[in-house]
Amino acid sequence: MAAEGKPLCEDMYYKYEQLYSRPFITPGSEIPENLLNLSHSFGYDCRRRANLRLLDERTLTFIAGQMVILLDISTKQQKYIRSCSGCGIGSIGVHPSHKYFVVAEKGKKPILIIYEYPSLKAHRILRDGTEYAFNSVNFNSDGSLLASLGSAPDYMLTLWNWGQEEVMLRCRAISQEVYRVTFSPYNPGLLTSSGSGHIKFWRIASTFTGLKLEGLIGHFGKMAATDIEGYIELPDGKVVSGSNWGNLLLWDGNCIKVELCRKGGQCCHTGVAQPFALEDGQLMTLGSDGMIRGWDYERICNAESSSESSKFEMEPMNEMIVGRHVCLSSIVKSSLPDSTVWFAQDSNGAIWKLDLSFTYSTPDPECLISFHAGPIKGLDVSKKSHLMATTAKDRTVRIFDFLAKTELISSRFNQGGTALHWAPPSVNYSGGLLVTGFEDGVVRLLELFDSTGLHNNKGDTRIRLKQAFKPHNGPVTSIAYERDGKILATGSSDCTVFFFTVGEKYEPVGFVQVPEKVQILQWSPHSHHESSLLIMCQSGHVVEVPCPDNNTLKTTKSYQLLELPRRSFCFKSIKSRIKREEEIARRQAFKVKQQQEHQEHQVPEEEKIDEELPPMVVPNPRSPLHCGFYSEPGQFWLSMGGFDSGFLYHCKFSERQDEGPDQRHDEPFDFLTVPNADDDPICTITFNSNRQLMLCGMHSGSIRVFPLDPNNHTLTSMQAYWDLSVHDSNYGQLRHICCSYDDQFVLTAGDDGNIFSFNLFPHEKLQKGLSRNRAMVPSPRDGLENEDLAQDIDDPAVDSIEMVRQKLEKAHLSQEAEKKKSEKRKRLAEIQNMFNKLLRDNNDLPEHSRLTFAELQLNECFEEEAKREKTRKIREVQKQMSWEEQYSQISLKKLQEWFNGYSEFDKVTVFAIRNDHRVSTYHVPALSLVQIPQQNGYSSTSNIEAAPDERRKSRDQTLKDNSETDEEDLPQVLVTRSSLVKLADRQIERLKKAAEKAEQARAKIEKRKQEWDNLYKEKPKKNCEDPDDVQAICEAKEKIGDLKLKTDKNFTVPKHLRMNPDKKKAEMTELEANIREKQIEINREVVALRDSKLILLSKLRAETKQFEKVQSLLPSHLQRHPPPIPTIHPEEIPDKRLRCTRDILARYRVLREQRLQWTDIREQAEGINLLTHLENEMEGMDEEDDMSVLSAAGEEEELKGEEAAELSKEMESKLVFMQDLLLEKMESMVQKFDREHLTCLQKVQMLDWKLKLGNLRQLTLYQELLLLKEVDKSEEIMEEKLETRVKEEKKLMYKLEECQEQLDLKYQDITKLQEKEKAVRKAFQASLGEDKKFEEYLTKVFKRKIKRTKEQQPGEEEEDEEDFDDYENWDDDDDWETMEGEDAVEECPPGCDPKLFEHVLRLRERRLDLEDLLIEERKNVDVLEKERDSLAKKLKSVKIYRKAAEDDLEQVNREKQQKINQLDVVVPLRLHQIEFDIRGQVPLDLSLALILNKTELKRLQERVKQLEIDKNQQTDIYNQARQQHIRLIQERKDKNTEIQMRQKNCNQLMMRRFGREVDLEVLQTLSGNRTVEELKQEILLQEAAHAKEIKQWDIKVEKARGVLMEMTRSNTERLLCLNSLFEQKKELEQKLDARQKKIGKQLQDCSRRDDRKEILDLQELVRRQSQQMEILSREISLLSHKGGNMLPTTQTKLPPLAPLLNPTIKYLRKPGKPNFRSSDRKAYNQM
């Protein structure tokens, strides 16, 4: 970065050699740095956004893995700039002048490097632009500024003054992926950025604090949000952007003004559309459909949407079709002025040159160069030449000459390639045979040859299809030739491996089935005795099969080789065990080291809580298998990904192959650690020809080379390595790596579409070793021209080899069966004809010669033999069909239980009367009760929770006891008074009134204190929160939930919504009960409808009888036809259908007897069921009864007709009215029933719909129950572990609380002891009395520490030494010399009261006892504090473990929720309910849609409104509370100020009144004290006596003061003399210093003898002067102490004289000692 105020020079450059990333080499190894050197790049990352830039008219640049490639268009020569970070390159940009270009790196804190072109020098470096990678960089129109846009997680937009390496502005762009950022070409202060589902408009605003970036997000309005890949700014400030569906969006401000489309609502482009330029009044756009179109700019600017639609329709002015299968993603213009040439990036793997002049002479689009599009799926090299073959899913197979660095030929097929293998010389000696596998399971044999020498050829390289066959139904994943070239094996994702014999035409041998998708196939090397195939599957299964022999293996019905022996291995993870063992070893080593250190320093070891070891983890799903290879027979190495990455695992097949994988416990028996590969597994491994180098392709896109010992199969020599980042570190996994046949080149291919060739030696050495500059292409084989082209397989749905064989086998079996059937029929026909002929011949014979029918029957022995044979065959069939028979019996039993045992309702079907509608009851099974065990709380927890209450009770009791025991009698003050003074009566009365007044004041003060205490109790603490607010927050936290979708990976399942099998069973039971309840309810309605129909029929019959009576009185011409009486169907009364009467049983008996009498054979053969015959007869009897009833009714009608003729006409009208009335009544009753029937039918149909949903819900719940049962065991383990941790945490918390409570008690005890000690000292001070005559002596006695006898335990020794240093108040005065030592005798001094002396001794004993108790209590406190600290550490570790357990349980619940989310749930929707549409229509894939109930949606919308209202209310409340808070704070300040002022005034008044500050409460509670009054009276008397004595002492003081003045005058004179001596000494020192300096200059000229003599003289002089000074100082000291004790006692001592400024002289505290320290004297003497 530029220094502040110092601009960078224009000619400043960085050294590229110090910037670019180099390979990593293991320190200490001898691997050369230039082991691999880049030769050429054959790929192009065409799927990367904006990966094409133009430097000049002939140089293109783009990103390829870890490099920026500069491609010369004409010569196809390449230049390379390597990444500096080693993590890849994010984006590139070109300066408008084309003199510079910027390379944006990837990695941690990536940098921006500006290179100068064409010198390619690093001109500027910009740092700290983003966190991990740059997505886009762009210069402004004049090139002075650079904009960079970072990727996740910061998405930082930065504007650079790149010339000075300074950041101008920066701002977070948005919180989602951003694709592009550009400056406006018309307004330098505007920028635009776009990305995933957004576009944002920026401007550089000038604010009060400086420049600032302001962004405005674009609003899509009613239009669906879209990813915006491209846009263009217009001169008027509008912006035109593309969309995912192909239309253009015109933005005005931050809103869409109009959507541009073609006429008829057609899209502007098919697929993604991007505007890219404004040329000649045309807006140019490109699309993923391969089209470039020009639109009228004026019409776009003036476009307005109609009132009906927001779209504006228009047609393009010009368009160009670039080509078929073209997907344009970006385009750059030529740097020449007025040029119409553009270069376009094709996402399908090409770079195009386009002329967009749109004239008649415009040339066609030119494809400059083509590449593979997308990940490279197959790569292999020729075993005889420098040729390389690749294939990818872009449906092409390409051949490269990596020696000449050119592509020879490319061939396109109908499906994408997935695997490729170059046939070895043992198969094709010329080395021109390729075997390629494709997505549809087809394998093609391709011949590569040079067409030189063939008829009508151009001498170029060609590819010819030799054979095509389809062995698989899925993509081919691996191809391998047997080591002798006799067998070809192909593996596929359909879990099969197919074998073919190698020859002129490959013939299928058979296939084997493997457990999983095939990843790699590898044949055993020649060092193994037997040829076997190692099949490695994607999820860790490994299968070994021997090479199949076509002569011994015979497959007839199928190609599956069931008899082929195999060995299996299922990888089991051991990484967690490895990590745990490493951690144990590390801890053990650390522990040993610590023990050694403690032993050396003799430090006691501290108890530490061992941290929990790393858990044993079994990855689910299993880790993927990337690659592997043989080591020894039966042993192999595997490289795993995912959780198990970071190691190479040495495995072998188990000898117990008859057991399953779970019983075998297949685990690696050895492993090797791969350095720095925990998150970067090895994806592919290959060796050079002599196995001295192992080349590994890493997941991060880097090449890693390990030097090896070729004879060491255990890979113990795999220590040092060489590592170089090549492909993109994010998505460029290196899948393929190969060495050339001569080990001089290394070829790599990755998922980023790049292909690189490297020289294994330095370029100069390689050129010397190569004899040619081009690879040799094989010649065509003889007779190739005359052969017909092989038939290709174009249809991807064609049958595979196995399917064809199965169909042929099935057809053959059908033909054989038909043939046998025809032969049997023919033979039966012949036998039948022979028998008929015999019958006819027998009938033609005379009657006596005829054979009887019995004689024509077979012999009994034959019949018995046939029966035995029949029985034997039946038994065989029964044996074969036993399983199906049992299955059918169980099914029948279930059906019977369903329809008979578990049904609570018989099926009742009620028919309507006037239509064909019918409604039936439901089959209601009995409810299956699911007992859910109730989870009872643990008693231990309740006991633990109850422990604190008991402990609090005991603590309170202890405090109470202590308070009682602490009320001890304090030492009484011993008061001795010489005499008592009697008070007058007036004084006594005044004392009584003062006592009463003090008592009243004391009561008032106590009352006020109580009120203050109550008020302070109500006052909340400083950090206290309102309980209502706390409760509301808790309720909100419980109810707010996790608002993320359940499909989110980070969704946290709330505790009340977590499911287990018991809850799910309860939910299923509840749903089943609800379904059953609804069914029963409808069944009751149907049965009630049936009963109403029966009642209706009875009413209709009654009305019919009345109607018949009326008709019997009417003449026949007035009679109307009666309505048909509805009948009751058997389905309506199923309970009566099987009722048997005596007549039915009697008839059944008759029919049974008749059947027994039938003897006709034909009738026996065609006999009918008795029950069927009986039912038919009963129906016939019913019909006869009906006919008889009808005939009787006819006769009655005839009789009634005769009677009716005699009626009068008056009665006729009345009867006709009654007849009509009855008909209407009957019709209304029938219609009412039909309406009720229709209502019931509608309810049943609605319930049917709901029941279907309920059944689907039951199915979903059952699937969820199965999933929950799978994870229930692990969840229970996690819950038990968490519960254990919680219990342990609670116990530790209780112990810690108990310890803290004990500490508090101890602290209280210490405080009480200290208070007692203070009380003892106060009692001592009080006992001294007022005169304090012996205060000094008694104080020393009181404070002295004496030797005290203690009760000793047996075995303890007496302590003879006492510590006298613990007392701070110990006096060292000379007057106490007689009391020093242990033998000093303590006696009551003369004149002291013996009682007072004894009292002081008792107080001393009491003080010493209290001090012993304090020491003991402090020791106990120390022990408790240590215990508390250890418990706190344990509690902290337990909380960590509990948190880890909670996280594990949460992870299990999250995984459980994710598994439940994967279940499919059926939700019926109508089309109008679906609002998820793309391009105006509902897409086929609705996996991204979210189904939401309309009621729930309305509730959420209302909830949003309600929350908005609540938010506003809370905001208002908050503002009011804030204002009130501010007001209260101000009031508090005012009150505090007022209190301070009043306190100040009060203090001033107390100082005026009392002369000091006093306690007003004490003052108010003062009462009259008789003793005080007596003392006052005594003081008055003593004051008079003392006044006389003071006068006498004043006289003595005056005399002593005169003497002192004389002595002071004498001492002053001596001090003046001393001062003069000091000045002389100072002058001598200065002279001495000056002479020493002069002597130093003359040391070389003068002799040492003279110097030494002068020095000795000076030292002697100084010594004499010091002696004189010492003598004077002694005299001064003696004079100062002389007569000191003569001063009167009332005269204070004068302060000592201040020491002189000379640092060498210092006064001592005692007389008679020298004023020099020893060190000062030595220093002075050395002078």
Strand order, main sheet: write it out.
Answer: 1-55-54-53-52
Structural class: alpha+beta
Largest sheet: 5 strands, antiparallel
Radius of gyration: 56 Å
What does this molecule look like?
This protein is an alpha+beta fold. It is 40% helix and 20% strand. The chain contains 24 helices and 60 strands. The chain has a 5-stranded antiparallel sheet with strand order 1-55-54-53-52, with no helix packed on it. Helix 17 (1209-1327) runs antiparallel to helix 19 (1394-1461). The longest helix has 119 residues, at 1209-1327. The chain is extended and about 195 Å long.
Notable features of this structure?
extended; disordered C terminus; alpha+beta; five-stranded mixed β-sheet; 1727 residues; 24 helices; five-stranded antiparallel β-sheet
SSE blueprint and pairings:
Elements: E1 24-25, E2 37-41, E3 53-56, E4 59-64, E5 67-72, E6 78-82, E7 89-94, E8 100-105, E9 112-116, E10 122-126, E11 134-139, E12 146-150, E13 156-161, E14 166-172, E15 178-183, E16 190-195, E17 198-207, E18 210-217, E19 231-233, E20 239-241, E21 248-252, E22 255-261, E23 273-279, E24 282-287, E25 291-296, H1 297-301, E26 311-313, E27 318-321, E28 328-333, E29 341-346, E30 350-355, E31 366-370, E32 376-381, E33 387-392, E34 396-401, E35 406-412, E36 417-422, E37 433-438, E38 443-450, E39 461-469, E40 476-481, E41 487-492, E42 496-501, E43 507-513, E44 518-523, E45 532-537, E46 541-546, E47 567-570, H2 575-601, E48 625-632, E49 635-640, E50 647-652, H3 661-664, E51 670-673, E52 682-687, E53 693-698, E54 702-707, E55 722-725, E56 734-739, E57 745-750, E58 755-759, H4 763-769, H5 801-844, H6 853-856, H7 860-880, H8 882-901, E59 909-911, E60 918-920, H9 939-966, H10 985-1018, H11 1027-1040, H12 1061-1113, H13 1134-1137, H14 1142-1157, H15 1161-1165, H16 1170-1204, H17 1209-1327, H18 1335-1343, H19 1394-1461, H20 1494-1554, ...
Parallel strand pairs: 22-26
Antiparallel strand pairs: 1-55, 2-58, 3-4, 4-5, 5-6, 7-8, 8-9, 9-10, 11-12, 12-13, 13-14, 15-16, 16-17, 17-18, 19-20, 20-21, 21-22, 23-24, 24-25, 25-27, 28-29, 29-30, 30-31, 32-33, 33-34, 34-35, 36-37, 37-38, 38-39, 40-41, 41-42, 42-43, 44-45, 45-46, 46-47, 48-49, 49-50, 50-51, 52-53, 53-54, ...
Helix pairs in contact: 7-8, 9-17, 12-17, 14-16, 17-19, 18-19, 22-23
